[in-house]
Structures are given as structure tokens and as C-alpha cells.
């Protein structure tokens, strides 16, 4: 009897859908109302139930084949969880406003050129990867984001080619907040620790220690990611911002003029675009060389280099991009138990 009942229910549902869709071809459709609004093809009225959009992960959203402008869904694990709509070039978060999110999947469809004149889609390492390329809003440029320890927002900077429509909005100062433990460092172990240069461990006698607001904190990878392991996770970043991926860093380098060939070099210093990212550089990124802590317990390289975590990892290593006292940029994996700096990228 249960099987018969299910069949009848299915038949009724199919008939209902047929009638609704058939009616919609010639007139308006109202659910919960007999007089839908004149400008609406479909109106749903209820005081006890909602309208449910398709729910999917960020990865599933960006695997949709040829989405049409206006397509809507609910993203379950995006940095800004909520309703997204496709605007013709990328999915945007409706909960954060039209400028909040432009997650673009780079493949054969995207041929925008960076300052080097090369299309970033020729970067085979990043083929099919999702890149956040979104303008900063005027409010963010004037007021920053989040709240840093002195009570003001972190300053932000827009980097990219304004004519292309694919800018990136970056923090212009290092993160100095987090949720890591206050227990002492555990050498060679990524135990979610973060702190300032020289905090509770060994430093060269000639190197000053102590917290410097301009330098921010140094983070082990799990602390930067706030326990997450997925690429482009929010981590310790403010809402609607995230820990950039390795490819999002390469897109930044592309916008600064680094060649595709140099971008894809692994485990080495490449190019000369690091000069644009350091204090006084043309990008206004202001990457102060604050040094870092090795997992042997030593804080080193203050005034000589700085590393920035990405959310791209494998095993006990994660990719970082490093500036030095020269003009090049290092790209390569680093032990997650090391501590380096964090810059957030807008979704």
C-alpha cells in the first residue's frame, strides 16, 4: 500500500507541475495567492514557509557549465555564506552587495591581460582555478575593513587594471588578530600559534623584539586558516574576505607585470615586481619586511624579508610568497609550523 501511495503522490506532483508550467506559458503563476503581482511571472506568498534555492558548495557553484546572468543559488561554504547570483562574469554575493564577490574561474574563457600584456589564462598552473577579482568599495577605501587593535579598520588597496574590470582588493597592512592558543611555541609542530616577532623564543641579540602594530603578528598556517584546510577559506580574515590562494597571488603578480613564465616558477625567487609591493612601491601594498620564525625556534630576517601565507597547501607544507631586500618575489612551499605574515583578499 505504501508503494501505491507514493506512486499516486508522484503522479499528483507531476500533474501539478505540468499545470503550473503550462499555465505559466500563457499567464502569471501564483502560489499561495490567486492574484500575483502584475510585474511578476511567479509570486509565492506564505507566512510560514520560505522559498528554497538550490544549495551547493563553492566548488560546485564554480563547476556550473555556462551559467546564465541572473542565475541564483545558495552557497554553503563560501567565505561569505549566502545567496549568490551570476552577473555575467562571476558569481556575486547578494548578502554583501554588488561589489562584494567576483569569483572568476580562469580557463579558456578568460583572456584579460595583466601589466605584462600576457593573458593570465595562459598560466597553466592556475587553469580552472577560482580567482577573486573585485573592486574595493568607496566605503572600504575610506574606512578600511574589520577592526585592528587600535580600534580602526585595516586599510585596503585596489590593485589591477581598472579598464579590465578585474581588480583585486587587498589589505594594505598585516593582520594582527587571531584565535590561536596562548601556550608556548612547540618547535617543529603546527599547533595553531601566533605572536609578535621575538615573542617567547630565541632571537639574535642584535635584533629588537616586541609587538609593532605596523608589522602585525606572525602566524603558523593553521592559525592563519583558523583551523580550515580548504583553499580560499576565510581563516582569520574579516567577513567577506579570505586567505588568498597561490593562484590569487600569481594573479596579483600578473597585474604588477610579472611574466607568466616567471609566475609559474616554483621554489625560487622570480621577477622584479617585489619592489612594487614594498613600502613606497607603486602598488601601495606596503609589504614591510618584518621577518619570520623558523620551526627551530629562531626569529630571523627582520628588516630583510617577509613571507605571506596562501591557503594552498599539501601535507605539512603550504605555499607562501616572500619579499626580500631585493626586488624579486619568492614562491614556494613552507613548513606550516613556520610563522609568517597574513594579508587578506576580498571575496
Note down, in words, how this protein is organized:
There is one protein chain. The N and C termini lie far apart (52 Å). Residues 1-9, 15-24, 96-102, 107-111 and 203-208 have low confidence and may be disordered. The protein is elongated, with a radius of gyration of 24 Å. Among the domains are: 43-101, no CATH class; 171-346, no CATH class. The protein is of the alpha+beta class. Strand 17 (305-314) and strand 18 (317-324) form a beta hairpin. It is 16% helix and 21% strand. The chain has helices at residues 2-24, 58-61, 138-143, 221-224, 246-256, 260-263, 274-277; strands at 29-31, 42-44, 55-56, 72-75, 82-86, 91-93, 103-105, 130-132, 156-159, 168-171, 194-195, 218-219, 241-242, 268-270, 292-293, 299-300, 305-314, 317-324, 329-335, 345-346. The protein has seven helices and 20 strands. The strands form eight sheets. It has a four-stranded mixed beta sheet with strand order 3-4-5-6.
